[in-house]
Specification:
The protein has 671 residues and is an alpha+beta fold. The protein has 27 helices and eleven strands.
Length: 671
């Protein structure tokens, strides 16, 4: 049946919204039949919705993912309301989660305190005399999971992935990244001015007069701009080998003696012979600044950043000031979220495994987990077959690629072992103290990993999270329970819908194991070349082809997608579609031609894929993401892969002259 006729039939059906009995899973009311599928498939699937969708004042975007987030959020609110009102056994996860949430909702107590909770820290800052006292304060704050000029984390050694090491990265800035200090376009200058105004506002809220506050803001901005000059760009940070610099602590002491790394570790109670310094130029610059910048400037810098960090948990004047800069200016969000939603997010961030355990007990089934595992296994088989049929890769490299694929660790739904929060003290009358207790526990948990074997069963996301990830050092693919819902997945949906939805996501994460970064890690997760020289040269050429194509896409005015920044995610999207489709064709439905509501299985597969990325976003937020986000905008997460995928052309009769049409020889084919 011609697509226009099929769409007309579907529109007559006018299917119901997700979750309502009778759902056909294809949201035809969102589709725009005036757009040819081959001109802009994203608009064909979502165009009618885009014309009428309104972004709520408390959001920066709206779409399929946000709608799923809102449904999940309401489920979590029900859990939080229940446990916060129940009589829970002290020390139980119900008591911890419930009392933490209740303490955050106690706005009357928080309002009375003003900025009193941070005054002890401000007093310590006021006593700075030299670099030694500054670094002592930095180490004290590290123990509360707050870092300002030294960014430390524990993670796998990239060249010895079974062992954890201390990793250090560039930090110290208040603007989104280093480029914001040097760009001179009107939009960026407006952000710079808003940031300076925010610094002034924060100081005046503590009683500093406006003239003094302005001088402090000027000195802070000048200091941060010097730091920014030593930072690598976001694109440069994607160069994995260049950001692995394992150094002996004794050598670091010689290179940057003012920082005194051995003393810093000693004050933290950490023993380490060697560490990875991702961006040495930053720490060399920091060493110099600690010598040359007056103590008064450092006092202003730390006072502002401590207040900025704490602002969301202080009285409303600080909360609102923080919102105006961090949310309204940077992302375009017009209205602050209700308090319960902000505290729910804080609960997830600080007691994530406890909240996650309560969530999966109520909302995630064993049947869903087994069904998704079946999907994962089918996509793994499909990718293996596709690797075997590659015409650009040698047999020896194919064998190693398959070995890596077979070694994938698959995590679905939730961890086998939940985090223990027994050392966290939660008092339903002391929100700020609760945050600090959680932070201290987190520092102890993370720092204890250094020099110890990696726990491969640990998760990097909480169970309710609507996301997924690939971790190269663990060679693992992870799919939390949160994303295993419609429109990505539904146990009652036909295979076309599930393979076009969660199947694409699964294929995307699998491809990350073989994208421009993931391909540099072997099956054990070590940064180690496993390619033949000729094969890797061909692979790099394909990655450049992806970068060039996506760089041609225009997002806002003259602002293009940053193809170099988004190469890995774009490769994963291109691969994800191909792998998901190949796995779909292994199913009975995928091999059939029976239509549902006038649509073939292949058409339903591609429509499902188009649905999951349905999104509308504010210009400010889109601009910020273009600079920072390694993912392409939603439209190009759909159109980019499909314009390179021949089965899509056949399903929707895409012809020369259509705007998405590429000659077969120009279509990017990787995995």
């Amino acid at each position: 049946m011609p697509m226009a006729a099929a769409l007309a039939m579907l529109q007559a059906c006018n299917t119901q919204t997700a979750g309502v009995s009778g759902q056909k899973f294809i949201e035809t009311a969102n589709m725009d039949s005036s757009v040819k599928p081959g001109d802009n498939f994203f608009l064909f699937i979502n165009g009618k919705w885009l014309k009428t969708a309104t972004i709520p004042s408390t959001e920066t975007s709206i779409g399929a993912g946000r709608e799923l987030f809102n449904r999940t959020k309401e489920h979590l609110k029900g859990i939080l309301d229940s446990v916060s009102q129940a009589q829970n056994t002290k020390g139980s996860i119900g008591q911890q989660v419930g009392d933490f949430y209740a303490s955050g909702l106690d706005s009357a107590t928080i309002e009375k305190l003003g900025y009193q909770p941070v005054k002890p820290y401000l007093d310590k800052i006021a006593a700075f005399t030299d670099a030694k006292s500054i670094l002592q304060f930095e180490s004290d704050m590290q123990k509360t999971e707050h870092s300002y000029i030294i960014a430390m984390g524990a993670g796998a050694d990239l060249k010895n992935s079974g062992m954890n090491i201390a990793n250090f990265g560039q930090t110290g800035l208040g603007l989104p990244d280093r480029d914001y200090y040097f760009k001179t376009d009107a939009a960026t200058v407006a952000v710079q001015k808003a940031y300076i105004s925010y610094i002034i506002k924060i100081f005046t809220l503590t009683g500093v007069d406006s003239v003094t506050a302005a001088k402090k803001a000027e000195s802070i901005y000048a200091l941060e701009k010097q730091m920014a000059g030593s930072h690598k760009t976001n694109v440069e940070l994607r160069d994995v080998p260049a950001n692995y610099n394992k150094l002996a602590v004794t050598d670091l002491d010689k290179k940057t003696p003012v920082i005194s790394w051995s003393g810093f570790f000693g004050s933290l109670g950490i023993k380490a012979d060697s560490v990875n310094v991702g961006q040495p130029a930053y720490y060399q610059k920091l060493n110099d600044l600690l010598k040359s910048v007056p103590a008064d400037t450092w006092k202003s810098y730390y006072a502002f950043h401590v207040l900025d960090d704490a602002a969301p948990s202080l009285s409303s004047a600080f909360v609102n000031a923080s919102f105006e800069y961090h949310n309204k200016t940077l992302s375009g969000q017009q209205q602050i979220k209700p308090r319960w939603e902000r505290i729910y997010a804080s609960t997830d961030a600080n007691l994530g495994d406890a909240l996650g355990q309560l969530y999966v007990n109520k909302y995630f089934t064993a049947d869903a987990k087994s069904r998704v595992l079946e999907l994962v296994n089918n996509l793994q088989t499909a990718l293996e077959s596709r690797i075997g049929n590659l015409d650009w890769m040698s047999d020896s490299t194919k064998a190693k690629a398959k070995d890596k694929l077979h070694a994938f660790l698959k995590k679905i739904g939730y961890p086998d072992k939940w985090r223990d929060y027994s050392k966290v003290t939660i008092d339903r009358n002391k929100y700020f103290d609760n945050l600090m207790s959680c932070n201290k526990n987190e520092f102890a948990y993370q720092s204890a990993k250094i020099g110890k074997p990696v726990d491969r069963m640990e998760w990097g996301m909480t169970a309710p999270t609507i996301n997924a990830y690939y971790n190269p050092t663990n060679n693992e693919i992870v799919f939390p329970a949160g994303i295993l819902q419609f429109p990505f997945f539904d146990p009652t949906a036909d295979d076309a819908v599930n393979y076009g939805g969660i199947g694409m996501v699964i294929g995307h994460e699998m491809t990350h194991g073989f994208d421009d970064q993931g391909a540099q890690f072997d099956k054990e997760g070590n940064l180690k070349n496993w390619w033949s020289k000729d094969d890797y040269t061909k692979f790099q050429a394909k990655a450049k082809q992806v970068s060039r194509l996506y760089s041609s896409f225009v997002v806002l005015d003259s602002l293009h997608v940053n193809g170099d920044l988004t190469t890995g995610e774009n490769m994963a999207d291109v691969g994800g579609v191909a792998i998901a489709y190949a796995a779909f064709k292994m199913t009975k439905e995928g091999q059939d031609t029976t239509t549902i509501d006038g649509l073939t299985p292949d058409q339903r597969f591609f429509i499902s894929l188009g649905q999951i990325w349905r999104s509308k976003i504010k210009d400010q937020s889109q601009r910020l993401r273009i600079f920072e986000d390694p993912h392409s905008p939603a439209m190009y997460r759909v159109n980019g892969p499909l314009m390179n995928f021949t089965p899509f052309y056949k399903a929707f009769n895409v012809q020369p002259g259509d705007k998405m049409y590429l000659a077969d020889s120009a279509r990017i084919k990787i995995w």
